[in-house]
Amino acid sequence: MTKKKQIKTIALLTSGGDSPGMNCVIRSITRTAIGQGIKVYGIQRGYAGLLNNQFVELNASSVGNIIQRGGTILHSSRCPEFKEKHNREKAAQILDDRGVDALIVIGGDGSFKGALALEQEQNIPVIGIPGTIDNDISGTEYTIGFDTAVQTAIEAVDKIRDTAASNDRTFLIEVMGANSSSIALKVGVCTGAENVLLSHQKVDYEKIANAIRRGERRGKNSSIIIVAEGPKPGRSYDISHVLEDLHHISSRVCILGHIQRGGSPTANDRFYGSLMGQMSIQALLKGKHRHAIVVRNDHAECVPLTDCSEKSDHAMKEFVGIAEELSI
Fold first, then answer.
1. Domain check: are 79 and 102 in the same one?
2. 61 burial class (0-12, 13-18, 19+ CB within 10 angstroms)?
C-alpha cells in the first residue's frame, strides 16, 4: 500500500472554459487550506501555466473581494499538450520542485482526465471540482457555473419575448451546449418556451410548425424556440431556413453565445463553489487522493474521480417534455 503524503503545500488551477463561481472555489480552497496551516499556490492559465511554471502564492488577502466576480482570477486555457505523457512528467517535476503535495483541478471532464493521468502515472494526489456551465460531467448533478449561465439566458429570453410579442414574431434563441441540453431544457421550462430543441435531437419541423400554428389559432402572436447549439454553433440559422422554405414560417435567430459564461455568480454557484472548495481540503486531509467533490440529491459528496471523467447529458433529461406540455 502506498504511504499517503502529509499535505503541507497544495496547488490549484482552473482549466478549460471559464465559468461563474470558479472564483468562489478559489477563495474557499485558499482560506480553508491556510486555516489548516497549508501553503497555497495558484497556477495561472491552467495546465498550460503548469507546464510554463506560472505559479503565484495565494493568501487570504489575495482572494478577498472575488466571491462576486465572474470568470477566474487565475485565468484558464485549453492545453492539448497535456495529453502527452512526457508533458505530464514535466508537470510532475515542476510540482515536485515547488514542494507541492497535492493538486486541485477546477474544470470539466477533459481537465479531470488530465488530473487522473497525473495521479495514476506520477502518484500526485489530485482532487477535482466540476466547473463548467454545460452541466455535462458524469457522476454529478450540478457543476459550478451552470446556474448563472441559465439565469443569464433566462434574462435574455425574457427581453427577447417582449420584442417578439410586440412584432408578432417567432424567435429561435440558441444557448450553449455542444454535447449537453441542460441549459436549453432549464431555460425552456423557465421562460415558457413553445419548443426546446436538444443538442443531438433530430429536428421535427412539422411538429414545430404545427405547434406554432396551433398557438396562432388561439390568438398567440409570437413563439419562442430554445435551441441547444449542438456540435457547431449556429444551427439555428439552418432551422430557420427550413421553417421558412418548407412551412412558410418566418423567424428571427438570436445566438446568446459567450454572454452565458460571464457575470456575477448566482447564490447557488457561490454556495456550492464555497462548499466544494472547503470539502476538497477536507478530503485531502483525510487521505482521499484521487477524488472529486460532486453534488448528488442536493448534497455535496466526495467520490472517486473516475466517476466524473466522462461527458454526460444526464443531468436534466428527466425534464424533457415539460416545456412542450406547458406550452399548449
1. yes
2. exposed
Catalytic residue among 18, 134, 147, 307: 134
Q: Identify the sign of the CA torsion 48, 73, 12, 265.
A: negative
Whether 304 and 250 map to the same domain: the answer is: no
Q: Is 269 a catalytic residue?
A: no
Sequence-separated (6 or more) residues with CB below 8 Å from residue 1: none
Nearest CA to 130 out of 257, 283, 311 is that of 311
How many structural domains compose the chain? 2
Q: 154 and 128 share a domain?
A: no
Q: Which residues contact 252 (CB under 8 A, 6 or more apart)?
A: 164, 169, 170, 171, 172, 240
Side-chain-facing half-sphere of 51: CA atoms under 13 Å: 19
Residue 27 lies in a domain: yes
Residue 190's domain spans which residues?
A: 147-261
Sign of CA dihedral 237, 239, 244, 248: negative
Whether residues 32 and 115 fall in one domain:
yes
Domain with residue 37: its CATH number is: 3.40.50.450
| Residue 313 lies inside a defined structural domain of this protein | no
pLDDT in single tens digits along all 328 residues of the chain: 345 678 999 999 999 999 999 999 999 999 999 999 999 999 999 999 999 999 999 999 999 999 999 999 999 999 999 999 999 999 999 999 999 999 999 999 999 999 999 999 999 999 999 999 999 999 999 999 999 999 999 999 999 999 999 999 999 999 998 888 899 999 999 999 989 998 888 899 999 999 899 888 888 889 999 999 988 889 999 999 999 999 999 999 999 999 999 999 999 999 999 999 999 999 999 999 999 999 999 899 999 999 998 888 766 667 777 777 776 6
